[in-house]
Design brief:
This protein folds into three domains: 62 residues, Trypsin Inhibitor V, Chain A, CATH 3.30.10.20; 68 residues, 2-Layer Sandwich (Trypsin Inhibitor V, Chain A); 68 residues, Trypsin Inhibitor V, Chain A, CATH 3.30.10.20. The relative contact order is 0.10. A hairpin with a 2-residue loop joins strand 8 and strand 9. The strands form six sheets. The protein has a four-stranded mixed β-sheet. A three-stranded mixed β-sheet has the order 2-5-3, with helices on one face. It is built from five helices and 16 strands. By secondary structure, the protein is of the alpha+beta class. The longest helix has 29 residues.
C-alpha cells in the first residue's frame, strides 16, 4: 500500500494522468466535430407552405429545392380537386437535402357512402345524421301529416332513396316533411265540369290531391277532357275531408 501511495506522488503518475485526460477530451472533440460535419449541423432547408397550391405547383417548388415527395389523397367536400390539403413536415420546418415531403391532395372522385336510416326522424336529427355521413341537406318540402317536421321521405335526384342504398359522398338530399296538419279537415270541392288542370289547381288550394284517374269513352284530348264524376263527392253527410285526401276523378270528352 505504501508503494502505491508513493507512486501517486511521482512525476510519472502525474504525467500519465494529464495525458489520459487530454486524450479523453481530444476524443470528445473529435467525435463532436465529426458528428457535426456528418449531420451538417445548423444547415438545412426550410419547408415551404404548400397547402392550397395545385399539386403541379407544389411539386415544382419541392423539386426546385431538391426535396422528394410522396402523394396521398382524400376527398373533402367544397374544395377543388388537385389542391394540397395537408403536408408533413409542416411549413417552415428545417429539413436536410433530399428529404421526403408527404403531401395530401383532394381527389376528384367522391367515394360512395351508404344512406343512413332517417325515416321518422326529426328534421334536426336527420340533418345531423346525413351530415355525419358526408351528405348535405337540399330542399325541404311539406305534405299533410300529423307529425310536424318529421322526415316522411328522402329524395336523391328526384327519386326516393332508402336506407342502405349507395350514393356519392357530398350528395344533396331533399326531405319531405310532415306539416303537422294531417288531422285538419277542409271543405270538399266540387270538381264536376272542370278540366284536370283546373281540378289540380282547385285541389292544391284545398291541400288535397288527385287520386285515381279513369276515362269514360275514348279520350282524344286529355287536356280538354272534363270531369264528370269524383269520389268522394260532397253530400249533406260529407262536406269535409282530411288534408291530403286523394280525390278520384272520371274524365270524358267535352260535348
Amino acid at each position: 500500500m505504501g508503494n502505491f501511495t508513493e507512486y501517486l506522488k511521482t512525476k510519472s503518475f502525474r504525467t500519465n494522468i494529464i495525458a489520459a485526460i487530454c486524450t479523453f477530451f481530444a476524443l470528445l472533440l473529435i467525435a463532436f466535430f465529426s458528428l457535426r460535419y456528418y449531420t451538417k449541423h445548423g444547415e438545412g432547408l426550410e419547408v415551404p407552405n404548400l397547402k392550397g397550391l395545385k399539386i403541379e405547383d407544389a411539386i415544382s417548388k419541392l423539386e426546385g429545392l431538391g426535396l422528394r415527395y410522396e402523394i396521398d389523397s382524400v376527398y373533402i367536400m367544397d374544395q377543388p380537386p388537385g389542391i394540397v390539403t395537408d403536408q408533413d413536415p409542416d411549413p417552415q420546418t428545417f429539413v436536410k437535402d433530399n428529404r421526403t415531403i408527404y403531401l395530401t391532395i383532394n381527389t376528384n372522385n367522391a367515394p360512395n357512402v351508404r344512406f343512413p336510416d332517417i325515416e321518422a326522424k326529426s328534421l334536426r336529427e336527420a340533418k345531423s345524421i346525413i351530415e355525419s355521413y358526408g351528405l348535405k341537406l337540399g330542399d325541404t318540402t311539406y305534405k299533410p301529416d300529423v307529425a310536424r317536421d318529421v322526415v316522411l321521405e328522402a329524395l336523391f335526384g328526384g327519386q326516393p332513396i332508402k336506407a342502405g342504398e349507395s350514393l356519392p359522398k357530398g350528395s344533396r338530399i331533399n326531405f319531405v316533411l310532415g306539416d303537422g296538419r294531417g288531422n285538419e279537415e277542409v271543405e270538399l270541392p266540387n270538381l264536376t265540369g272542370l278540366t284536370i288542370d283546373e281540378a289540380k289547381f282547385s285541389l292544391k288550394g284545398s291541400m288535397l290531391t288527385i287520386g285515381t284517374i279513369t276515362y269514360q269513352g275514348t279520350i282524344t284530348d286529355t287536356a280538354n277532357a272534363i270531369i264528370v264524376s269524383q269520389f268522394p263527392l260532397a253530400t249533406d253527410s260529407l262536406s269535409k275531408v282530411r288534408i291530403g285526401t286523394p280525390i278520384n276523378i272520371t274524365l270524358t270528352n267535352k260535348q
